[in-house]
């Protein structure tokens, strides 16, 4: 990456860099990198956390002209103007609290360098999860079929709307799918066997909810599997956690899928 010349920003997979003309002093930052958070959103009234429910700070690194991380660089974190009503950012530690629902941006700064904007989303805190697809279902197949069954769940919060108890879908919430029976499929990455897939039929055990349907993954039965009817029943466990890592009411959900020849 070119590090000399005018102040500039370069987007990388793990973060973003800003560059400035400096010498070769190993303690002088010439670039800054900021990492995306592990979870897609913060629950309103809570802090940014990792997938285990532990409070997580925004992580950034400063680099010198030799592309080495500078230990202890005085990096500071800020919410962009007008975003302070949505999130509160501790400038020294990078911890972020969600004040109200909405979209905000965080930047990291050091020695006159600034990272690109890191989007941070705050979503309502969910309090329930429920199945949209049938919990027990059958898949009928022909011997030449390569088939699947979608497993859809909704993450929601209970609210009173016009005097009526209502379930409001919560977007941007993490949902994990695992085939637990037979247990050897729980960590299977062989797509010639039964596996969890996304809409593109690629191996995927985690989805993020949207505001309409919820989360969707499909249990796929490749040709080699449906042609062998010795094993007919498969159980998928779906976990949805609160921000603190404890299960949401209704979680886990168990989906039982039975394959049957036509």
What does the secondary structure layout of this molecule look like, with pairings?
Blueprint lengths: L7 E4 L4 E4 L11 E4 L7 E2 L16 E4 L12 E4 L7 E3 L6 E3 L3 E9 L2 E2 L3 E6 L4 E4 L4 E6 L5 E15 L2 E6 L4 E8 L13 E3 L8 E3 L6 E7 L1 H4 L6 E7 L13 E9 L1
Parallel strand pairs: 4-11, 13-21
Antiparallel strand pairs: 1-2, 3-5, 6-9, 7-8, 9-10, 9-11, 12-14, 14-15, 14-19, 16-18, 16-20, 17-19, 20-21
Explained architecture:
With 262 residues, the chain is mainly β. It has two domains: 8-123, Immunoglobulin-like, CATH 2.60.40.1080; 128-261, Sandwich (Immunoglobulin-like), CATH 2.60.40. 2% of the residues lie in helices and 43% in strands. It has one helix and 21 strands. It has one helix at 223-226, and strands at 8-11, 16-19, 31-34, 42-43, 60-63, 76-79, 87-89, 96-98, 102-110, 113-114, 118-123, 128-131, 136-141, 147-161, 164-169, 174-181, 195-197, 206-208, 215-221, 233-239, 253-261. The strands form six sheets. Strands 4, 6, 9, 10 and 11 form a five-stranded mixed β-sheet that branches.
């Amino acid at each position: 990456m070119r590090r000399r010349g005018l102040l500039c920003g370069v987007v990388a997979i793990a973060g973003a860099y800003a560059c400035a003309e400096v010498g070769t002093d190993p303690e002088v930052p010439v670039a800054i990198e900021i990492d995306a958070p592990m979870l897609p959103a913060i629950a309103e009234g809570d802090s940014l956390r990792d997938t285990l429910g532990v409070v997580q700070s925004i992580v950034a690194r400063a680099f010198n002209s030799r592309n080495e991380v500078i230990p202890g660089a005085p990096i500071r974190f800020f919410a962009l103007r007008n975003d302070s009503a949505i999130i509160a950012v501790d400038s020294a530690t990078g911890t972020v609290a969600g004040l109200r629902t909405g979209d905000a941006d965080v930047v990291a700064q050091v020695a006159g360098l600034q990272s690109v904007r890191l989007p941070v989303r705050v979503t309502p805190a969910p309090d329930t999860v429920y199945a949209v697809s049938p919990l027990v279902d059958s898949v009928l197949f022909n011997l030449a079929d390569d088939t699947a069954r979608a497993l859809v769940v909704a993450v929601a919060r209970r609210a009173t709307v016009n005097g009526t108890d209502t379930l409001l879908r919560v977007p941007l919430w993490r949902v994990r799918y695992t085939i637990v029976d037979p247990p050897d499929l729980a960590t299977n990455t062989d797509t010639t066997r039964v596996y969890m897939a996304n809409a593109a039929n690629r191996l995927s055990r985690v989805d993020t909810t949207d505001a309409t349907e919820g989360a969707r993954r499909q249990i796929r039965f490749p040709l080699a599997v449906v042609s062998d009817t010795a094993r007919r029943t498969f159980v998928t466990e779906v976990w949805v956690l609160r921000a603190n890592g404890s299960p949401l009411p209704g979680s886990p959900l168990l989906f039982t899928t039975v394959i049957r020849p036509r």
